[in-house]
Every structure is written in C-alpha cells, then in structure tokens.
Amino acid sequence: MSLDEDVVAAIYRDHGPALRRFVLSACRDPQLADDVVQETVLRVWQQAPHITGSLRSYLFRTARNIMIDNYRKAQRRPRETADRDLADPADGEERVDELLNRVLMEEALLRLSAEHREVLVALHYRRFTVQEASVSLNIPSGTVKSRAFYAVRALRTILDEMGVQR
C-alpha cells in the first residue's frame, strides 16, 4: 500500500462512519451518501497538506459543501414530480447547515469534561433552570452556575480549535 492509500484508509477508518451518518441524515439515500463520503475523502486527501485545524470539522464542512452543490445541480435539472415544485432551495441548505452544526456541537461537547458536559446538557438541551439542574445533578446551585461558566469558556475554546465560526 502506498502512503496515499494509507492516508485515505486512515481517513475512512477514523472518520468514515460519522461522516456517512451525517450525510445520510441529510439525504436519506445510502448510495448518494456513499458517493458524497467518497468525494469528500478524495477532496480532503487532495487538500491534506493545506488543512489547518480539526480534520473532522474540515471533512464535515467539505461534505456539507458537496451536498449543497449536489442540491443546486438537482434544482437546475427539470423537475421529476410535482412535489418537488413545493420545495424551497434554501430549505436544503438550511437543513444541511443545521445537521453540520449539530454534528460539530456534538463533537465539541464530547471533548468537554463529564461535569461540564452534564451541566450544559441540563441547562441548554434539557432546558432546566439552575435549581432543576442542581436537583437533577445532585450538586449545589452555585456549583451549577460555576460549572456552566467554565464549560461555556471551554466549549468556545474547543470550537475555535475546530475552526467553527460563531
């Protein structure tokens, strides 16, 4: 196996399953998802020496761009069904952006300490008040506030490292 084949194999091994899940959640077509993942890995492999920051976030942004390009190409072709006439082209891009943001945030949250992640999930995803989070996590409300403050700071740093624009 050549060095290039090793790099491509490593990208598939380390990021392929997550990338495919992301693409599949946007397009719901397994064959199209495989095509997008393959094209993404190829583009990233070609740009590998120039990539700065997180390879995974670069992969997801590249996949997002490929999906948007594919969506735009499909919009330029004649429509196959009347149902597609109802679709707004911006909806496809917004859905892909939303999915990308969700995946990147999930990755960033996983890089936080368990204590920080628990507090952020309780406050921002489960929509608990500080008091409710305190009871749920069995910690004082002052600790909830303190952990939330430091968790947000850590999350910002992680997102900056990943190259995510806020």
TrEMBL record:
Belongs to the sigma-70 factor family. ECF subfamily. This is RNA polymerase sigma-70 factor (ECF subfamily). The keyword DNA-binding applies. Residues 11-77, 108-156 form the RNA polymerase sigma-70 region domain. Keywords: DNA-binding, Sigma factor, Transcription, Transcription regulation. Pfam families: Sigma70_r2, Sigma70_r4. InterPro entries: RNA_pol_sigma-70-like, RNA_pol_sigma-70_dom, RNA_pol_sigma70_r2, RNA_pol_sigma70_r4, RNA_pol_sigma_r2, RNA_pol_sigma_r3/r4-like, WH-like_DNA-bd_sf. SUPFAM superfamilies: Sigma2 domain of RNA polymerase sigma factors (SSF88946), Sigma3 and sigma4 domains of RNA polymerase sigma factors (SSF88659).
